[in-house]
Design brief:
Helix content is about 25%, strand content about 35%. The chain has about 350 residues and is of the alpha+beta class. Strand 5, helix 2 and strand 6 (about 70-75) form a beta-alpha-beta unit. It is elongated, with a radius of gyration of 25 Å. Mean pLDDT is about 85; it is low at about 1-15.
Length: about 350
């Protein structure tokens, strides 16, 4: 099954890159799940919207999980059966021999920026009234799917490898396998309650604002590893952490072309070097007024512990590229401050 890059299917030297779901993953995860659900399904016709080399169709047929299929792709590898050299999104494909209530739509669409292309594929499948769907997509698409389908199965996979055998290249993506039954109408979106900082600290990640004088904690929110580098203010200078290691206690803010930057130390294979972190961009959380309520070293100790935990690694890599949302981080800080302040009160 083909897996596209984030920008969807794109050309490199006029050749489409082809990343495939491994056969091992299909055998171990997709087929076993589908077998458990199959007893409630019958006479299934599978429509593969981006077939690649048709390996998912071949495996479903071999395991007698589907009766027939139709495959589409804009660039495919001839490996099994028939594939229409067409963009499924532009097709008005209607079944003649088969009842639509017995169809399954899927499987691994191009994602596009912020999963916009994947959502187009999902919505078209819903609009065509196919009874079931089976999508291998980013975890963040789950709410969009649940608006259109009753969940029959969902499972998540961190850093799943997709392989381009033609150039022996692999990309890793965190995804979920979602199998659902079509809802008759789209559910209205449920609004998530906005996360608000407690205890009067301030947090921001606006573009190009620079580092204000009252900022006392700066944390990286995306990339690999997440949460690091981490900086906190001690008097005139800043202490910098990378993973569990305290890199320097003399990092400082510098001004260049009217913008404020953090002059920290970048770690690489050849040792440390001075590097101007462009912290005015949105890849860093800038937190102020937090030093007035808590021992910063105790707080940073807990943040360093969090950033090095296996649980946090799994959470941050649930979505690719690895990132944490501001809402999630505000909720975490609120909880952490509650705990640390309670400990302080107990000592008084």
């Amino acid at each position: 099954m083909k897996k596209y890059t984030f920008t969807g299917k794109h050309k490199k030297n006029n050749i489409h890159e082809k990343y495939y779901t491994s056969q091992e993953f299909i055998n171990k995860n997709v087929i076993s799940v589908f077998k458990n659900l199959k007893e409630n399904m019958s006479n299934l016709h599978f429509i593969d919207t981006s077939a690649g080399d048709n390996r998912i169709v071949k495996t479903l047929l071999e395991n007698k999980l589907i009766e027939s299929y139709k495959s589409f792709d804009i660039s495919f590898s001839n490996s099994f059966g028939e594939i229409e050299l067409k963009n499924w999104i532009g097709e008005n494909y209607t079944l003649k021999k088969y009842d639509k209530t017995d169809t399954v739509i899927g499987f691994n669409p191009p994602y596009g920026y912020n999963n916009k292309t994947a959502k187009v594929f999902i919505n078209k499948g819903w609009e065509e009234q196919h009874k079931y769907c089976m999508w291998l997509v980013s975890n963040s698409v789950k709410p969009y799917l649940l608006e259109r389908y009753e969940e029959l199965h969902v499972s998540s996979y961190t850093n799943l490898a997709f392989i381009d055998t033609s150039v022996d290249k692999t990309i890793k993506q965190s995804v979920m396998l979602f199998i659902g039954e079509r809802r008759s109408k789209i559910l209205s979106k449920t609004k998530k309650e906005k996360s608000i900082p407690k205890h009067n600290y301030l947090i921001e990640r606006k573009h190009y604002k620079g580092i204000a004088d009252n900022v006392s904690l700066i944390i990286k929110k995306t990339g690999n590893p997440v949460l690091f580098p981490l900086f906190y203010k001690k008097g005139k200078y800043w202490t910098q952490y990378y993973k569990r290691e305290k890199i320097t206690e003399t990092a400082e803010i510098v001004e260049k072309d009217g913008k404020k930057y953090m002059r920290g130390i970048s770690k690489n294979k050849n040792g440390g070097k001075v590097f101007d972190y462009a912290i005015e961009s949105n890849v860093y959380f800038r937190i102020s007024n937090i030093e007035n309520m808590i021992d910063m070293e105790k707080l940073v100790e807990k943040l360093v512990e969090l950033g090095n935990s296996e649980e946090f690694f799994k959470h941050a890599n649930k979505y690719k590229p690895a990132s944490i949302t501001q809402g999630w981080f505000i909720d975490y800080l609120n909880m952490l401050l509650d705990i640390l302040l309670d400990i302080l009160l107990e000592k008084v």
